[in-house]
Amino acid sequence: MEKYHNDHLSKNVALEIDGKVFLLNQMNGWVTMSQYVKMFNLKGVNVINNWIMRRIVPPENVIEIPELNNLRLVKAIMYNAKATGRPSARK
Question: Which residues of 35-58 are buried (b: 16+ CB within 10 A; e: fewer)?
Answer without folding.
Answer: ebbeebebeeeebbeebbeeebbe
